[in-house]
Amino acid sequence: MTFNSDSEAPEAAFPNGNSAISVVPRPEPDSDSEDPVQAVRRLLEGHRNDRHLVLLQDFPDPDALSAAWAYKLIAANYKIECDIVYAGTLSHQENIALVRLTGLPARRWLNADDAHLADYQGLVLVDNQGTTSQLYEHLREAGLPLVLVIDHHAPQSKLDAEYIDLRPHIRATATILTEYLQRGLLNLDRNNSKHTKCATALMHGLRADTNQLMHAGASDFMAAAYLSQFYDGQLLSAVLQASRSKRVMDVIERSLRNRKAQNNVSIAGVGYLRYDDRDAIPQAADFLVTEDNVHTAVVYGIVHDEDEEREVVIGSLRTSKITLDPDEFIKEAFGQDSEGRFFGGGRSMAGGFEIPVGFLSGFYENSEYNRLKWEVFDTQIKQKLWRLVNPEEGMINTD
Q1: What is d(CA 78, CA 317) in angstroms, rounded to the nearest whole number?
Q2: Is the distance from CB of 200 to CB of 232 less than 8 angstroms?
Q3: What confidence tier does 48 reach under pLDDT thresholds 50, 70, 90?
Q4: Whole-angstrom Cα distance, residue 307 to residue 87?
Q5: Distance between CA 190 and CA 152 in Å, rounded?
Q6: CA–CA separation, 166 and 153 (whole Å)
Q7: Cβ–Cβ contacts within 10 Å for residue 88, how many?
């Protein structure tokens, strides 16, 4: 979710610590009480020789990319073929470097027609719950059964999967997949270059979602210790040294110029962005939260997708305040759509939101119209955020 990119039944929004949730189980994956790794092993055995579509969020981050790759390798051990897809784009420089340098087998998939879907027997969600993918609803409506969900975010929607391994107390989905490896779903081989590259990707995903392990829990440290036996340090260093583009730097500069701060909270709207520059938003939030006397930063903008003729308000939250729950804060600020799906959520120290512009979508040559539209959305977003900042107490209030 740092997020190198960012994102529901209301009663399930704030879980009570369950390490895994089993939903509509088949005879193969056992009951709620079964160990998650054993349940996934049973599920994979029951799907031998299938072909799965592994769906990521529209703008996948290192955690999602690496965890999906690990699942693909594990599934191959059970004669299950997998294709990893996403509907958006890779724009963060580290994500582009990760895919290019490791050969990570994920691809953008825009044409999810029924002819393609007939090749698959199941859908798998990794590091998401369908709410951050524009493909998800089409895939379900086309009749593709949801086989498995593996995620570390709080529940975002009600899912009818065969099995759900949902662990909000874990800091990274890469940690969950590394546990699968540790528990024998696949034995990593140091002499297998594909295994080494996947371990490197998992280490990157784990570090990214735990702020270089500074927010890691015991499970994350154990996963990192295991991966340290297999990952390529030089390859990881090359990924991390990827430079920011000028457009990303321009968005960061815009966030600095437009930021408004109150009671240690900094909020900045950055206007319109191209679809390919969407990952500049979380990078700007990462930068703003480092300012002196700021513990929480929110950056947002309207992202224009020319291919799909759609616009969406996309925002990222970063915080160093340990008592602030980004998931609760974003859900409280922006609520749900007409179908009960939250517009955003988060994890420890980070979160994100996506709000469709809807009827007003469209970038027009009339600059005055575009300015007025931005002012409306900018004012509305700020109003929803500032109402949760208590001026008298100097703290964010989500009660």
Answers
A1: 39
A2: yes
A3: very high
A4: 11
A5: 27
A6: 7
A7: 24
Task: Please give the single-letter amino acid code of residue 26.
Answer: R
Q: What is the pLDDT of residues 339-383, one digit of tens each?
A: 778 888 887 788 889 888 887 777 666 688 888 899 999 999 999
Strand, coil or helix: 57: coil
Q: Are 126 and 64 in contact (CB under 8 A)?
A: yes
Q: How does DSSP assign 70-123, residue by residue?
A: HHHHHHHTTT-EEEEEESS---SHHHHHHHHHHT--EEE-----HHHHTT-SEE
pLDDT in tens, 162-172: 999 999 889 99
Q: Is the distance from CB of 317 to CB of 298 less than 8 angstroms?
A: yes
Residue in this structure with the two tokens 């054993």, named with its chain if needed = 38
Distance CA(48)–CA(75), nearest Å, equals 9
CB-based contact 135:85 (threshold 8 Å) = yes
Least confident residue range of 18-27, 42-51, 249-258, 314-323 = 18-27
Of 172, 227, 158, the closest CA to residue 198 belongs to 227
- Report d(CA 286, CA 266) in Å as an integer: 11
Query: CB under 8 Å to 201, separation ≥6 — which residues?
Result: 62, 65, 66, 69, 98, 102, 104
* Residue (of 241, 249, 243, 299) closest to 277 by Cα position: 249
CA-CA distance, 50 to 348, in Å (whole number)?
35
Nearest to 150 by CA among 228, 226, 52: 52
Residues paired with 336 in a beta bridge = 342
Name the nearest CA neighbour of 93 among 193, 196, 204, 176: 204
Report the alpha-carbon distance of residue 59 to residue 87 in Å, rounded. Answer: 8
Write down the pLDDT at residue 92.
Answer: 81
CA angle 341–342–343, rounded 5-degree value: 120
The type of residue at 220 is: D
- Phi, psi for 243 (deg, rounded to 5): -85, 155
Q: What is the pLDDT of residue 122?
A: 96
Please give the mean pLDDT across all residues of the chain. 84
Question: In this model, does residue 74 exceed pLDDT 70?
Answer: yes
